[in-house]
Amino acid sequence: MRLKDKVVLIGGAGSNMSRACAVLFAQEGARIVMAARSDERMQQTARRIEQVGGQVLTRRANLADESAVDELIQAATDQFGGVDCFVHSAGGFYSSEHDLPGMAMKFLDDALRNNIRTLLVPAQGLVPIMTERGGGAIITVTAGFRVRQDANSAYAAAKGGMIGAAINLAGELYTHNIRVHAICPGVIKQPLPEDPLRPLKPKLERLGNPLDVAYGALWLCCDEAAWVTGQAITIDGGDSVFVHSPTRRAFVEG
Question: I need a surface site. Which of 4, 150, 171, 227 has the fewest CB within 10 A?
Protein backbone atom coordinates (compact mmCIF):
# COMPACT_ATOMS: atom_id res chain seq x y z
CA MET A 1 0.00 0.00 0.00
CA ARG A 2 2.71 2.45 -1.02
CA LEU A 3 0.16 5.02 -2.23
CA LYS A 4 -2.44 4.64 0.52
CA ASP A 5 -4.65 7.74 0.77
CA LYS A 6 -3.06 9.30 -2.34
CA VAL A 7 -5.14 10.60 -5.24
CA VAL A 8 -3.55 10.08 -8.65
CA LEU A 9 -4.70 11.78 -11.85
CA ILE A 10 -3.69 9.88 -14.97
CA GLY A 11 -3.95 11.95 -18.14
CA GLY A 12 -4.06 10.30 -21.53
CA ALA A 13 -5.55 7.18 -20.00
CA GLY A 14 -5.79 5.17 -23.19
CA SER A 15 -2.35 3.64 -23.60
CA ASN A 16 -1.09 0.39 -22.14
CA MET A 17 1.45 2.32 -20.06
CA SER A 18 -1.24 4.51 -18.49
CA ARG A 19 -3.39 1.42 -17.88
CA ALA A 20 -0.51 -0.28 -16.11
CA CYS A 21 0.04 2.79 -13.93
CA ALA A 22 -3.65 3.08 -13.10
CA VAL A 23 -4.13 -0.56 -12.10
CA LEU A 24 -0.82 -0.87 -10.23
CA PHE A 25 -1.39 2.38 -8.35
CA ALA A 26 -4.87 1.22 -7.37
CA GLN A 27 -3.38 -2.03 -6.05
CA GLU A 28 -1.04 0.12 -3.98
CA GLY A 29 -3.93 1.99 -2.35
CA ALA A 30 -4.35 5.08 -4.55
CA ARG A 31 -7.67 6.50 -5.63
CA ILE A 32 -7.53 6.99 -9.38
CA VAL A 33 -8.84 9.75 -11.63
CA MET A 34 -8.50 8.98 -15.34
CA ALA A 35 -8.89 11.41 -18.23
CA ALA A 36 -8.82 10.62 -21.94
CA ARG A 37 -10.39 11.88 -25.15
CA SER A 38 -11.87 8.48 -25.97
CA ASP A 39 -13.91 6.43 -23.56
CA GLU A 40 -13.76 2.72 -24.48
CA ARG A 41 -10.20 1.87 -23.37
CA MET A 42 -10.53 4.09 -20.32
CA GLN A 43 -13.63 2.21 -19.16
CA GLN A 44 -11.84 -1.12 -19.68
CA THR A 45 -9.11 0.15 -17.38
CA ALA A 46 -11.69 1.36 -14.86
CA ARG A 47 -13.15 -2.15 -14.70
CA ARG A 48 -9.71 -3.61 -13.97
CA ILE A 49 -9.27 -1.09 -11.16
CA GLU A 50 -12.61 -2.03 -9.67
CA GLN A 51 -11.67 -5.72 -9.89
CA VAL A 52 -8.71 -5.11 -7.59
CA GLY A 53 -10.89 -3.16 -5.16
CA GLY A 54 -9.82 0.32 -6.24
CA GLN A 55 -11.81 3.53 -6.41
CA VAL A 56 -11.86 5.26 -9.79
CA LEU A 57 -13.35 8.33 -11.45
CA THR A 58 -13.30 8.66 -15.25
CA ARG A 59 -13.76 11.78 -17.35
CA ARG A 60 -13.59 12.38 -21.08
CA ALA A 61 -11.38 15.43 -21.46
CA ASN A 62 -8.92 17.01 -23.86
CA LEU A 63 -5.95 17.92 -21.67
CA ALA A 64 -4.94 20.69 -24.07
CA ASP A 65 -8.23 22.51 -23.38
CA GLU A 66 -8.07 24.78 -20.33
CA SER A 67 -11.79 24.76 -19.55
CA ALA A 68 -11.95 20.95 -19.86
CA VAL A 69 -8.98 20.63 -17.51
CA ASP A 70 -10.58 23.01 -15.01
CA GLU A 71 -13.70 20.83 -14.98
CA LEU A 72 -11.59 17.69 -14.61
CA ILE A 73 -9.67 19.04 -11.62
CA GLN A 74 -12.89 20.23 -10.01
CA ALA A 75 -14.44 16.77 -10.47
CA ALA A 76 -11.38 15.15 -8.87
CA THR A 77 -11.54 17.59 -5.97
CA ASP A 78 -15.27 17.08 -5.46
CA GLN A 79 -14.93 13.28 -5.52
CA PHE A 80 -11.65 12.69 -3.68
CA GLY A 81 -10.67 16.01 -2.10
CA GLY A 82 -7.81 16.91 -4.43
CA VAL A 83 -4.89 15.44 -6.36
CA ASP A 84 -1.48 14.32 -5.02
CA CYS A 85 0.13 12.95 -8.18
CA PHE A 86 -0.30 13.64 -11.88
CA VAL A 87 0.94 11.04 -14.38
CA HIS A 88 0.94 12.56 -17.86
CA SER A 89 0.78 9.85 -20.51
CA ALA A 90 -0.70 11.71 -23.48
CA GLY A 91 1.09 12.24 -26.75
CA GLY A 92 1.50 10.00 -29.76
CA PHE A 93 2.72 10.92 -33.29
CA TYR A 94 5.43 8.25 -33.44
CA SER A 95 6.52 7.01 -36.85
CA SER A 96 9.88 5.75 -38.09
CA GLU A 97 9.76 7.99 -41.19
CA HIS A 98 12.50 10.60 -41.60
CA ASP A 99 11.20 13.02 -44.22
CA LEU A 100 11.46 16.62 -43.09
CA PRO A 101 10.87 18.06 -46.60
CA GLY A 102 7.62 16.11 -46.81
CA MET A 103 6.39 16.87 -43.30
CA ALA A 104 3.16 18.84 -43.04
CA MET A 105 3.50 21.68 -40.55
CA LYS A 106 0.10 20.73 -39.10
CA PHE A 107 1.67 17.40 -38.10
CA LEU A 108 4.39 19.29 -36.23
CA ASP A 109 1.90 21.63 -34.56
CA ASP A 110 -0.33 18.73 -33.49
CA ALA A 111 2.63 16.74 -32.16
CA LEU A 112 3.75 19.66 -29.98
CA ARG A 113 0.21 20.41 -28.81
CA ASN A 114 -0.68 16.84 -27.92
CA ASN A 115 2.58 16.12 -26.14
CA ILE A 116 3.60 19.37 -24.46
CA ARG A 117 0.42 21.41 -24.01
CA THR A 118 -1.33 18.39 -22.48
CA LEU A 119 1.40 18.36 -19.83
CA LEU A 120 1.58 22.05 -19.02
CA VAL A 121 -2.13 22.93 -18.97
CA PRO A 122 -3.02 20.34 -16.27
CA ALA A 123 0.19 21.06 -14.35
CA GLN A 124 -0.73 24.74 -14.21
CA GLY A 125 -4.14 23.94 -12.75
CA LEU A 126 -2.80 21.36 -10.30
CA VAL A 127 -0.07 23.43 -8.65
CA PRO A 128 -2.45 25.25 -6.25
CA ILE A 129 -4.27 21.98 -5.42
CA MET A 130 -1.05 20.08 -4.69
CA THR A 131 0.43 22.99 -2.75
CA GLU A 132 -2.63 23.12 -0.50
CA ARG A 133 -2.21 19.39 0.21
CA GLY A 134 1.44 19.85 1.19
CA GLY A 135 3.06 18.97 -2.13
CA GLY A 136 2.92 16.21 -4.69
CA ALA A 137 4.48 14.70 -7.79
CA ILE A 138 4.17 15.28 -11.53
CA ILE A 139 5.48 12.66 -13.94
CA THR A 140 5.47 12.90 -17.72
CA VAL A 141 5.91 9.70 -19.73
CA THR A 142 7.96 10.68 -22.76
CA ALA A 143 10.41 8.53 -24.79
CA GLY A 144 13.94 7.20 -24.47
CA PHE A 145 16.82 8.58 -26.53
CA ARG A 146 16.96 5.63 -28.92
CA VAL A 147 13.19 5.83 -29.54
CA ARG A 148 13.43 9.56 -30.24
CA GLN A 149 16.25 8.96 -32.72
CA ASP A 150 14.32 6.18 -34.46
CA ALA A 151 11.28 8.45 -34.82
CA ASN A 152 10.38 11.43 -36.99
CA SER A 153 11.77 14.82 -35.99
CA ALA A 154 8.42 16.26 -34.84
CA TYR A 155 7.97 13.39 -32.37
CA ALA A 156 11.58 13.76 -31.22
CA ALA A 157 11.11 17.49 -30.67
CA ALA A 158 7.90 16.98 -28.71
CA LYS A 159 9.24 14.19 -26.51
CA GLY A 160 12.51 16.04 -25.92
CA GLY A 161 10.48 19.12 -25.01
CA MET A 162 8.60 17.13 -22.37
CA ILE A 163 11.90 16.22 -20.73
CA GLY A 164 13.05 19.83 -20.77
CA ALA A 165 9.74 21.04 -19.35
CA ALA A 166 9.82 18.49 -16.53
CA ILE A 167 13.34 19.36 -15.41
CA ASN A 168 12.58 23.08 -15.61
CA LEU A 169 9.36 22.64 -13.60
CA ALA A 170 11.23 20.68 -10.95
CA GLY A 171 13.21 23.82 -10.18
CA GLU A 172 10.23 26.14 -10.40
CA LEU A 173 7.99 24.02 -8.17
CA TYR A 174 10.63 23.14 -5.56
CA THR A 175 9.28 25.69 -3.09
CA HIS A 176 5.81 24.16 -3.46
CA ASN A 177 7.23 20.75 -2.44
CA ILE A 178 6.14 19.38 -5.83
CA ARG A 179 8.53 16.86 -7.38
CA VAL A 180 8.66 16.65 -11.18
CA HIS A 181 10.20 13.92 -13.35
CA ALA A 182 10.24 12.54 -16.87
CA ILE A 183 10.13 8.81 -17.54
CA CYS A 184 11.76 7.91 -20.85
CA PRO A 185 10.62 4.46 -22.04
CA GLY A 186 12.12 2.35 -24.76
CA VAL A 187 10.19 -0.06 -26.99
CA ILE A 188 7.18 -0.99 -24.82
CA LYS A 189 5.29 -3.66 -26.73
CA GLN A 190 4.74 -6.67 -24.47
CA PRO A 191 1.14 -7.19 -23.30
CA LEU A 192 0.16 -6.07 -19.82
CA PRO A 193 -0.27 -9.14 -17.58
CA GLU A 194 -3.65 -9.97 -16.10
CA ASP A 195 -4.51 -9.09 -12.49
CA PRO A 196 -2.95 -9.04 -10.00
CA LEU A 197 0.06 -7.15 -11.30
CA ARG A 198 3.44 -8.32 -10.04
CA PRO A 199 7.08 -7.55 -10.88
CA LEU A 200 8.26 -9.16 -14.09
CA LYS A 201 10.93 -11.83 -14.42
CA PRO A 202 14.26 -9.97 -14.64
CA LYS A 203 15.44 -10.25 -18.25
CA LEU A 204 17.00 -7.53 -20.38
CA GLU A 205 16.75 -9.13 -23.82
CA ARG A 206 13.05 -8.64 -24.53
CA LEU A 207 10.57 -5.98 -25.56
CA GLY A 208 9.51 -3.59 -22.83
CA ASN A 209 6.36 -4.18 -20.82
CA PRO A 210 3.99 -1.43 -19.61
CA LEU A 211 4.72 -2.66 -16.08
CA ASP A 212 8.35 -1.61 -16.47
CA VAL A 213 7.14 1.98 -16.75
CA ALA A 214 4.44 1.62 -14.09
CA TYR A 215 6.87 0.40 -11.41
CA GLY A 216 9.20 3.30 -12.17
CA ALA A 217 6.33 5.77 -11.88
CA LEU A 218 5.15 4.09 -8.67
CA TRP A 219 8.48 4.68 -6.97
CA LEU A 220 8.65 8.30 -8.12
CA CYS A 221 5.12 8.99 -6.84
CA CYS A 222 5.45 7.31 -3.46
CA ASP A 223 7.07 8.68 -0.32
CA GLU A 224 10.14 6.51 -0.86
CA ALA A 225 11.21 9.09 -3.48
CA ALA A 226 10.38 12.11 -1.28
CA TRP A 227 13.86 13.64 -1.76
CA VAL A 228 14.12 13.01 -5.52
CA THR A 229 13.16 15.61 -8.14
CA GLY A 230 14.13 16.78 -11.61
CA GLN A 231 15.11 13.38 -12.97
CA ALA A 232 14.78 11.95 -16.47
CA ILE A 233 14.57 8.21 -15.77
CA THR A 234 15.31 6.00 -18.78
CA ILE A 235 13.55 2.62 -18.80
CA ASP A 236 14.65 0.98 -22.03
CA GLY A 237 16.60 -2.21 -21.32
CA GLY A 238 19.87 -0.48 -22.24
CA ASP A 239 18.97 0.91 -25.66
CA SER A 240 20.14 4.41 -24.70
CA VAL A 241 23.66 3.05 -24.23
CA PHE A 242 23.36 1.36 -27.64
CA VAL A 243 23.39 -2.24 -26.56
CA HIS A 244 22.66 -4.64 -29.38
CA SER A 245 19.20 -6.05 -28.77
CA PRO A 246 18.16 -8.35 -31.65
CA THR A 247 14.62 -8.46 -30.28
CA ARG A 248 14.09 -4.69 -30.14
CA ARG A 249 16.01 -3.90 -33.35
CA ALA A 250 13.98 -6.47 -35.29
CA PHE A 251 10.76 -4.90 -33.97
CA VAL A 252 11.77 -1.35 -34.92
CA GLU A 253 13.13 -2.29 -38.33
CA GLY A 254 10.33 -4.70 -39.15
Answer: 227
